[in-house]
């Protein structure tokens, strides 16, 4: 029987990370694949990246606009649940696949749990900071199947009371792409995006939704430190969380500078090539603590957004204050490449995911969940 699998994506990064799994399903004749694209994919400010998804020859792509600029996170969540619920009622999928800790994942898990549809959550059981971590754990509790990056994440899910048979370590799907030989060359990337720098760092700074009162001060310190360093930077726009306009308002002042190139977003594979060749990455994006260590690229992780996440030798943590950021830039500039870290997988997530499908694991997992008390002495 041909089963329908829906992948939910709300950002260009999410799409890039789960694309190996989407491709795996599309290549399997036993399954029908549908992409539910929403969130930042539908906003002009971020390049209307739904067009990119459509150009990748996927069989079925459904676009749903779940927000306008400046809507609050609770409003966006409500919008997404309503739209996805109607979509699910029409498509009647057998499996919903969601990733990470964005609102789109929470909406997908909520609808699946209440509609009696199996939900598979990729990269649950991880820690970060702010409200994102709460969202991630809430998504895990609503999901029926956990496809995690490593044994530490699996352990946290057991500590949350998740049953052992629901947890499967497949690694992070983005590492399949990161270690691929099919990434574009740096010359291709520089030509496509008109990047004039031979040497550059990458900057990504997102709003911390639990620290909005100090956000303007944090952003000012960040930008002042980048300018004072007299280095070249490729800057990626912040995400669409509440507070993003505060960052936008300050980034606009960098447009005329010859040391900065600003982009709403970059194609995932092209971004990975830029990352692999960067001197370092600085900001508070998960890229600095997850993807950068895979290439051994040094990173400066600012503030609390990725707190407790990432322990590789390539990661420097600093406070969101001018003096601290200045010192971190000096230190990271002296580091050079670090040993690669493959703590989140070695590039075989696609195969592991396909193996689960072929063993029909998603079709046999119970929709009735039970809290499993954590028993550390029993080997769990």
From TrEMBL:
EC number: 3.2.1.183
Enzyme class: hydrolase
Domain of life (superkingdom): Bacteria
UniProt KW keywords: Glycosidase, Hydrolase
The protein's name: UDP-N-acetylglucosamine 2-epimerase
Pfam families in UniProt: Epimerase_2
InterPro entries per UniProt: UDP-GlcNAc_Epase (IPR020004), UDP_GlcNAc_Epimerase_2_dom (IPR003331), WecB-like (IPR029767)
Domain named UDP-N-acetylglucosamine 2-epimerase: residues: 24-335
One MF term in the entry's GO annotations: hydrolase activity, acting on glycosyl bonds
Name of the gene this protein is made from: neuC
Keyword Hydrolase appears in the UniProt entry: yes
